[in-house]
Amino acid sequence: MAREHTKIDIPEQYIENEKKGLCRVCGESIKRPFRKYCSMKCSMEYQKCFKTWTGLRNKVIARDKCCQICDSKSQLEVDHIDAIVNGGDMWDINNLRTLCHSCHIRKTKSDLYKRKYVKKGQKTVSDFNFSEKKKSLIRAKSQSNPTDLTPETSSQSLRGV
For the whole prediction, is pTM greater than 0.70? Predict the structure, then answer.
């Protein structure tokens, strides 16, 4: 599924003003050299209705300044805390955080693993029906080589359990 790169959130009043031939933002008469607005201020205000992924990503990185897991400042990426596939909002800045590349891979693999093993009706990951021994092996495996924790490698390493 393709993701949106721009979110458009135009207030209804702006649309009504445009239909009347007025400034989209304030409803005043349009002044030259503008064709849709009365001033540069209104033009800039209208541009706020458009959110781009790049702009939102830059805001999140500027807000967090480093990886929110390991404090690294290199190879920064933006992660959806609640994955879009799990119903997380792509455009909610509160659902976004900065992670370094390696932590982002680890978190994504963890999300995939959880989706694979969470049974219908279970509300949280803590509802897994793994034995304590199996859980401790999963934790040890993820700490020793966190980027290698995939559902396949985890089940292979736990077959002896």
Answer: no
